[in-house]
Amino acid sequence: MEVIAGVHTIEGLGIGRAYLYLEADRLTLIDTGLAGSAGRIWRAIEALGRRPEDLRQVVVTHHHRDHAGALADVVDRTDAQVLVHALDAPVVRGDAPAPAPPALPFWLRSRGGQPAKPARVDRELQDGDEIDLDGGATVVHVPGHTAGSIALYLPARRLLFAGDAANSVLGVAPPSGPLGMFNEDASQVRDSFRRLAALDFEVACFGHGKPLDRDASREFRVYVERRLPPLERSEG
Fold first, then answer.
1. How far apart are CA 158 and CA 68, in angstroms?
2. What's the number of domains the chain is made of?
3. Is residue 232 a part of any domain in this protein?
4. What tens digit of pLDDT does each residue of 115-138 get?
5. Three-state SS for 70?
6. What is the pLDDT of residues 132-155, one digit of tens each?
């Protein structure tokens, strides 16, 4: 499905979504879905009249297996550069175990698809870095769901890729309910959502839930105003 010109969502990945960003001379994949999703990614690329080998970069918004699960298969077939935040890169590479979120029941920790195979990371991202994507995409560090969760903000297009820092499953909200069980730090989740709500964007794409193609930042702000307590100011 085309969200806006050049931005296509890939569905049917088991849990959540990935996105293809098509430019005249560049094809970017944002997240990869669960292990076993590579075939569906290839078909989505071919439906756009491109070949899998045309993929030039893969941005992973965080290390969870429903976002990085098929990464190893993607990089095995392509020369795409892999971009991950520095705090999640060791998990993606297999150099460190994935932290167990405190709210996640023990019996659920092994569920949710096969573990992601280790994959290379070519560039470790930091907050404020710019990615070569349609004139420039800014990396927004939004920790909480994982320590290295990121969003991508394209101000020229008023476009946000929120990863799992927000979702639209039951209206725009930070990860809560079943998704919230995977949060590593609930307080950071709320602060990160506030940070996204302060940006100006018309379109938002989520890892879970349908993209919004109009008035998206307004939906974020409405949630903050109605549901999140104001930040306490320290005196002195």
1. 26
2. 1
3. no
4. 789 999 999 999 999 999 998 999
5. coil
6. 999 899 999 999 999 999 999 999
The three-point CA angle 24-30-35 to 5° equals 130
Which backbone phi and psi does 37 adopt, to 5 degrees?
-90, -5
- Residue 227 carries which side chain, given as an amino acid letter? R
Going by C-beta distance under 8 Å and a sequence separation of 6 or more, which residues neighbour residue 25?
none
Q: What is the CATH number of the domain that holds 169?
A: 3.60.15.10
Q: Report pTM.
A: 0.93
Q: Is residue 236 part of a domain?
A: no
- Which residue, among 73, 74, 37, has the nearest Cα to 58 in the 3D structure? 74
CA angle 156, 160, 162 (to 5 degrees): 160
| Residue 227, phi then psi, degrees to nearest 5 | -120, -25
Residue 234 lies in a domain: no
- Amino acid identity, residue 78? T
Q: E-assigned strands of the chain?
A: 2-4, 7-10, 18-22, 27-30, 55-60, 81-85, 123-125, 130-131, 137-141, 150-154, 159-161, 203-205
* Token couple for 172: 């725009």
- What range does the domain containing 52 cover? 2-227
The contacts of residue 56 (CB under 8 Å, 6+ apart) are 26, 27, 28, 79, 80, 81
CA-wise closest residue to 88 among 118, 44, 55 = 118
**Residue 118: inside a domain:** yes
